[in-house]
Amino acid sequence: MAIAPITGMLRKRFWLDVTTSLGLGISAGAAYWYGYELKARANQEAFYLKLEKQKLAAAQQ
């Protein structure tokens, strides 16, 4: 009992696979960017702003 060869599978579903991959990749990237990265950058900027204000206050005294 031989197993029939799998032919044309890539060709038949190629565009579905490509669009699904791109869609999931872009969605995951957007979720990371807006869900984590922007919040982390805002926290970092707030920290450095606070640090700079402390340095200026210390220099004025």
UniProtKB/TrEMBL annotation:
One of its GO terms (molecular function) is cytochrome-c oxidase activity. The chain crosses the membrane at residues 14-34. GO terms for cellular component: mitochondrial inner membrane. Its main location: mitochondrion. GO terms for biological process: mitochondrial electron transport, cytochrome c to oxygen. The keyword Flavoprotein does not apply. It is found in: Mitochondrion inner membrane. The keyword Transmembrane applies. Keywords: Membrane, Mitochondrion, Mitochondrion inner membrane, Transmembrane, Transmembrane helix. This is Cytochrome-c oxidase subunit VIIa. It comes from Roridomyces roridus.
